[in-house]
Amino acid sequence: MVRNVKCSFCGKNLEPGTGLMYVKTDGTILWFCSRKCYKNYVVLRRDPRKLKWTSKYGVETR
Asked: How far apart are the C-alpha atoms of 19 and 21, rounded to whole Å?
């Protein structure tokens, strides 16, 4: 059975067998479609809601 996963940063759908899986120390699994998304989320700690090229842009969570 094929699992459909989305990029944890930009929200893009990932094809099976592609992408980067990152496991945090608390056990949370994050999927990234590219090194660009990984670097922006993990290394630079940017918020995807503030970048226009992500699908999460402008979404408010309360």
From this structure: 7
